[in-house]
Each structure stands twice: as structure tokens, then as C-alpha cells.
Amino acid sequence: MLNLTYTYRLKLNQQQSQTYEAWLETSRKVWNFALAERKDWYNSRSCRIDACSIKSEYIIPADAPRPTFASQCKALTQARKTNPNLNAAHSQMLQQVLRRLEKAFIGMWESGRGFPRFKKQGRMRSLLFPQLGVNPTQGSRVKLPGIGWVKMQLSRPIPDGFVAKQAQVVKKASGWYVMLTLQADVDVKSFAPHGQPVGIDLGLKSFLATSAGEQIARPRFFVDLQRQLRLLQQRVSHKKLGSNNWRKAQQKVSRLHEHIHNTRKDFHFKLAHYLCDQGGMVFAEDLNFKAHAQGMFSKHTLDAGFSEFLSILEWVCWKRGVYFAKVNPDGTSQTCPNCNHHTGKKDLSERVHRCNECGFETDRDIAAAMVVMQRGLAAVGHTVKMLGEGLSSSSLLTQESPVL
Q: Which end of the chain has the smaller Cβ count within 10 Å, N or C?
């Protein structure tokens, strides 16, 4: 079974837009109510049973069960019978809000994320419909629950053999969008290592360096527009909170944030396709970008979006039949790709790799990319020789690595 997600821009009229905005507000209230119910239950059991503070703790009977997704769905069904706003909204859509809250708590318990927070007005921006009717798409139209047929900007056609199974309607600063989950009953085969290998090394001086000696400059998506963003945010702070002028100024800030996100994502996709054109295997370091984002270069690391780029690169490689793998990142900048000698730790200001053992000299990032490529070839079972044994980086695969 193969699932694809295609995003299209919707062309809602005023009535359809008002309907979905009302559903977003209803979803926000359901989220806040369910979160408050869970939080009150936890607070009532966060102190000793013989020293509970009546002033600061909410008292709940000891035999009251912990609120779960199933129990809150049953309570939602009962509340829909008496609440007209809940009854007007799509039932499965509201259940997905509770499921999202359950995933937030699971992420807090298992992945160390923060406690789920309440959402203020305007913070709920998506509606998830897990089931669609028969033939929900016809040309450039899609049939959505609650509003019927809607025109969408068909930026790319839906592939033959795929059927839309679910839809997520997202409200962005530039308008409404629908994310269609397309499904086809096909078997997806994994790709074996083949073709020319390419090793990449990510960095801040240059966004990316390849084992072939190429360096890609790092665009500064957020940093270049930071001054304009600061000016727009200052204008928001000078408006009366909640007024029409405040909403207009806030809309400009949101549009700029969306522009930064779109330009970064466009760069990532174009670069991923460019790397896939270079060979049949792409190897990258398995880095902990969360730790990098907390250092002294956190702003620039987050601006580059390395983790998002590797996710996009893995998807593009799978889509185009290119083998992708991550290798151990330890010591890639401290190893000579020519003789495999350990050169020691380098300062960030030292941008040239010089090996005292064999005399090999090249750019530091390019040398690390060569080491990544060698580790990737060794991981997939190819015979790897050092460059000093008479092989160049271009002839490494053709002379020593069997092509599948």
C-alpha cells in the first residue's frame, strides 16, 4: 500500500470560509476543554493524599478514572446531543482533535516533549477529515464535509490509480489549503545500492559540500528578512490588541513567516533533486540537530533547516530510485580521506584539511564529505580503497565497487 500527500490551494467562497472558521473555533474549544479535564485530574493527584491543599488543588474523587481518548470520545458524543455548536461540526473531525491531544500526551511521556498547552483564539488552524465519500475528486474540484464541492488550484494532476482517502484542510496566512492523502494498492520495492556514490557534509559556512568537491552556498532565509520582520512586529505592538488594524498588521507578519518557510522548502527540494542527478547513492551524516539548535549558532542552524532537508532528501531519493543512507558522524572532520589517518580535533576557524601523514590537502568540508562517502560504501558492502592507493574520487566506484 502506497500513500502520497498532495497539497492544493482551495478557492472557498465567503459562506464556506465562515463555516470552516466556525469549525476551527469549535475544535479549539474541544481541545481546551479536554486538556483542562486531563490537567485537573493530574493536579488532583500531584500531592500526598493526607496533605492535599484545597486552595491550590482541584479535588476529584479517588475512584474517578483517568481521562483517555476513548472516555472523552464518549463524553463528546453525549455533549453533541445538547450543544448545538458541537452538533453542527463534523463528528469525526472533533474526534481527531481528541486523538491529536492523545498523541501530544504520548509524545510528552515517551519523547520528553513539553506538557500540552491551551490554544488561544486563532491558534487552531487545521481540520482533519479521516474519511471522504465515494469519488471525492472530479477534475479541479474536491468534495469536502460540510461545504460540498470546492474548486482547488490543481497545481499537479492526481496520479492514475490513486484514490483520495482523507483530507486535512489548513488555514494559512495566504489562504485555505487541502492536503489530500492519496492511496494506491501497489507494492513498493526497496532500492539496492547502485550507481555513482555521493557523500554530503552539512555546515554553516556552506550549506552543503559533496565528495566530488562541490560546495553549495547557504541561503539566509530568516536572517536576510529579520530586519523587515522586526519592523512588522513593532507595528503590531503599537496597535490596540484585538482591533482590526492589529489583525491586519498581524496578517503581514504571518505572510512574511510563510514566505520564509516557502523559500526554504523550495530550496531544499531543488537541492535534493540536484543531488539525485549526481549519482545513484547518497550518504549523509546521522547528526543530532536538536543539540545543534541549542548552541551558540542556534539561529543560523534553525534558519538552515538541516533536519527538514534530510527528510526531504530521503523522500526525493526514494521517489527517484536513489539509494539513501545515514552513516556514523563521529570523527568525519578528524579523519583523512586519503590515508584514513586521525588528524585530531580542529577549531572551527581552521577550514583547510591538512594531513601530516600523507600530505593530502583540501577543504575541510569536502574532506568530511569524502569520509562520509567511504563510510557509506563500506556500510552497503562495497570494497573501499583510500584515495592514496591510486584511486580518485570519481573512479572509486567504477574500479573497486561492483555495480548492482
A: N
